Amino acid sequence: MDHKENRPIPPSIKDSAMVHESWKIFQVMAEFVEGYERLVHIRPSVSIFGSSRVSPGEPFYELAKSIGFALSNAGYSVVTGGGPGVMEAANKGACKGPSASIGLNIVLPNEEIMNDYQDISLRFRHFFTRKVMFVKYASAYVVMPGGYGTLDELAEILALVQTAKTRAIPIILVNREFWKDLLFWFENHLIKTNMLEEADTKLYTVVETPEEVVQVMKEFYKDRSFDPSEDERRLLEEL
Description:
Elements: H1 11-39, E1 45-49, H2 59-73, E2 77-80, H3 86-95, E3 101-106, E4 120-124, H4 127-136, E5 138-143, H5 148-162, E6 171-174, H6 176-192, E7 204-207, H7 210-220, H8 230-237
Parallel strand pairs: 1-2, 1-5, 2-3, 3-4, 5-6, 6-7
Helix pairs in contact: 2-3, 2-7
């Protein structure tokens, strides 16, 4: 009978693992501190998400570039994940306008991806610290067509706003044809099975053009400030 799994872990191994994990805490803290210090002045800003797999000249790439340019011209800093595809396109468009272009780059195991169109560039090892930076200073989310990473960010902001863990901001989905099946599932299956309430389907807006993106922003902030209220600031401090 093999009793290996019942053997105690040698103290030296446990101590080594504990020291390693403790030092990781400082790495996480450093990512938060740098993010807060370098991004606190970028408001108002818009976080843009979308596929890394589209190339220059493709429709979604060119649309993202136009959206980045339109938002920059309207006075919004543009924040992306800093990589290729939609991220590169949005940063490239923003660089042609007067507002800041920001990349929150992630270090991945098998690739180093960072586009060349960033006025402010941050590098993160941890997805969760990076996610906080996307939310903390955003006046809106613009979600272009994309895969798992894009869906992850969309679900994150929907859940945070739905549960009032962050302030309500425009969540703008671009291209109804791409999103229609997911939205049908949201608006029919999830409501019918009592997984969502009708009000939850009002948290997002679907648009087609850069002009519509900017218009949604103008309408939302027509009678309110880009700066969070005291209550909203407290929420953001607890992200």
